[in-house]
Design brief:
- The protein has 438 residues and is mainly α.
- Among the domains are: 4-71, Rubrerythrin, domain 2; 77-219 and 241-267, Citrate Synthase, domain 1.
- Helices cover 50% and strands 8% of the residues.
- The chain has helices at 38-42, 78-84, 87-96, 102-114, 123-128, 135-149, 160-185, 199-208, 219-232, 239-249, 254-265, 273-287, 291-299, 320-334, 343-356, 360-364, 371-382, 389-410, and strands at 4-14, 17-26, 31-33, 62-65, 70-73, 76-77.
- A hairpin with a 2-residue loop joins strand 1 (4-14) and strand 2 (17-26).
- The structure holds carboxymethyl coenzyme *A.
- Carboxymethyl coenzyme *A binds at residues 50, 235, 238, 269-271, 273, 298, 306-313, 365, 367, 370-372.
- Carboxymethyl coenzyme *A (CMC) binds at residues 50, 235, 238, 269-271, 273, 298, 306-313, 365, 367, 370-372.
């Protein structure tokens, strides 16, 4: 049952003035002080760089308990979804708030299949990028450009069916764009999606098959891809999702809002960390023994270097997604799949994790492996190149971004996101003519 209840009051004293602020409690007993009247009542604002203590919204979509390592989509534990659901079912759950019936799932799946191909003109975009372009740059540019091809999506007063059709475009085409950006980067022809394939099979087909070949997606690989996408599908108010909400709060269309989310995700502290992890594991593998080097660099006082794939703003214990991925990778390595990645990298990752978790630096700061630490190993096993890893994260996160954009737009009253600041620049001064400046 969804809950948002007034459970008491907090008192705030500023000088002689005392005000009361309501305390609200959510479904899982998380509490927040509502400061929405603070400035009007006192002339003060709250200051919270990095939003460490700021709840920007209420949300029905995803619950995280960072101390206990719990992650649930619409109440369902991530471990259960990872074991039993498909990515498409999970996307439906996030966007529409419930698991689909078999009819709903079929209709949703058909909608995705119909929207998988790109407009022929969009293919020309890929020729315009220099060959060394990062695939995230291609993904965010082409996703943003989709708004030009589907202009009905620009009307902010859309109804549910319009959101659904834009969701089809985004979820389905993000995958096609990603696969095309890979084909372009290796100088191979674009492969059209095929109707007979489901979502993950179609991605593998567009990535790895050849024209005229009767490609048969490997079931182990398909399931592994399904799993990583499910684990990435949402993570409440993270940097990219908050970006999508903020951009969308200006009534910006869903394509442009999601493109902004892709840009935010690209950063190495967010979705770009999976690429950094793989580059580190490859470097350790190539150079013999550099595990200590990476750990010591991250621990050096005053160092800005981070151990990629470790630490999380919310999780102060093992990231539950990393746990599922680690087990899945073990299964993949020891399974019967005909596809093989660099198994020795798992060994290195395990040693690195073990070594880091012996250090007081990591223990005292509660820095554990996060989702990006193990996801890259699976991508590598699937044959996906390292620069594409953040793109894979983005494909998985599209349903979460859509769900949050939709929830934000349905929230009443609709408000543009607009934080305040404390100005610390020069006090009032006058314009100095150029000849008098020193
Ligand atoms: N390596 C070394 N030190 C770290 C790390 C790390 N990976 N993460 C945090 N710290 C230290 C940090 O230096 C600080 O130490 P001190 O208290 O001495 O100044 C302390 O831990 C707290 O760090 P913070 O920067 O205040 O923590 P945060 O909540 O702002 O940052 C984070 C969270 C994920 C950005 C950070 O842990 C990090 O940079 N990790 C590496 C990048 C990474 O793996 N990102 C993927 C996150 S999970 C997927 C996603 O959602 O994007």
């Amino acid at each position: 049952m969804n809950r948002y209840e007034n459970v008491g009051k907090a008192e705030l004293k500023i000088g002689d003035k005392k005000i009361e602020l309501p305390i609200y409690e959510g479904t899982e007993n998380e509490r927040g002080i509502d400061v929405s009247t603070l400035r009007e009542a006192t002339g003060h604002i709250t200051v919270d760089p990095g939003y460490m203590n700021t709840g920007s919204c209420t949300s029905n979509i995803t619950f995280i308990d960072g101390d206990k390592g719990i992650l649930r989509y619409r109440g369902i534990p991530i471990e259960e979804l990872a074991e039993k659901a498909s990515f498409i079912e999970t996307a439906y759950l996030l966007i529409f708030g419930k698991l689909p019936t078999s009819e709903e799932l079929t209709a949703f799946s058909n909608g995705l299949t119909e929207n998988a191909p790109l407009h022929e003109d969009i293919k020309k975009f890929f020729d315009g990028f220099p060959s060394a372009t990062h695939p995230m740059a291609i993904l965010c540019s082409v996703v943003s450009a989709l708004s030009g091809y589907y202009p009905y999506s620009l009307d902010p007063k859309r109804d549910e069916s319009e959101i659904t059709s834009t969701a089809f475009q985004l979820i389905s085409k993000a995958r096609t764009i990603a696969a095309y950006s890979y084909r372009k980067s290796v100088g191979e022809p674009f492969i059209y999606p095929r109707e007979k394939f489901k979502y993950c099979q179609n991605f593998l087909h567009m990535m790895f098959s050849y024209p005229g070949e009767d490609y048969v997606p490997d079931p182990d690989m398909t399931r592994a891809l399904e799993l990583v996408l499910i684990l990435h599908a949402d993570h409440e108010q993270n940097c990219s999702t908050s970006t999508v909400r903020l951009v969308g709060s200006a009534r910006t269309n869903l394509f442009a809002s999601v493109a902004a989310g892709i840009c935010a995700l690209w950063g190495p502290l967010h979705g770009g960390a999976n690429q950094e992890v793989m580059e580190m594991l490859e470097d350790i593998n190539a150079s013999g023994e550099k595990i200590d080097h990476y750990i010591n660099e991250a621990m050096k006082p005053g160092s800005t270097k981070r151990l990629s794939g470790f630490g999380h703003r919310v999780y102060k214990t093992y990231d539950p997604r990393a746990k599922v991925l680690k087990e899945a990778f073990h299964r993949l390595v020891h399974g019967k799949s005909k596809f093989r990645g660099k198994e020795e990298l798992l060994e290195i990752a395990l040693r690195l994790e073990e070594r880091a978790l012996k250090e007081d630096f990591f223990i005292s700061r509660k820095l554990y492996p996060n989702v990006d630490f193990y996801s890259g190993l699976i991508y590598n096993f699937l044959g996906i190149p390292t620069a594409m890893f953040p793109v894979m994260f983005a494909i998985g996160r599209v349903p979460g971004w859509i769900a949050h954009w939709k929830e934000m737009r349905e929230t009443k009253p609709p408000r543009i996101g607009r934080p305040r600041q404390i100005y610390t620049g020069p006090a009032k001064s006058s314009y100095i003519p150029i000849e008098q400046r020193t």
